[in-house]
Amino acid sequence: MRDFANVRLPNKDKEGNYDMCKAVIDLTNKGRAEGQTETLLFSIKSIMQSFDQSFEQACAVLKIDAKDMERYRKMI
After folding, report:
1. Which of 11, 32, 48, 75 lies in the 20 to 30 Å Cα band around 5?
2. Which residue stretches of the chain are H helix?
3. CA 38/CA 8 separation, integer angstroms
């Protein structure tokens, strides 16, 4: 599973088994976070191109705080 999903498996329990429910939940949450990031990046780029706005102006429209702005700036 580690190679397939590229996620770190949770620790084994006392019996040596993995908590696969937690692994699936973690994988789902990781996918959601990545999807949200991709959506925000697309929105920032769209606002910049469609309305001829700067990166900062696009982030202001989307109410993105300064800490996250720097993270997204590196991704664009």
Report:
1. 75
2. 2-5, 20-50, 55-61, 66-75
3. 22
Supply 46's token pair: 């769209």
CA pair distance 31, 38, nearest whole angstrom = 11
8-state DSSP, 16: S
Structural domain total, the chain? 1
Which domain range does residue 26 map to?
A: 2-75
- Check whether 15 has a pLDDT greater than 70: yes
In sequence order, what are the residues at sequence separation of 6 or more whose Cβ sits closer than 8 angstroms to the Cβ of residue 75? 37, 41
**63: left (phi > 0), else alpha (psi -120 to 50), else beta?**
left
The predicted structure's pLDDT at residue 64: 98
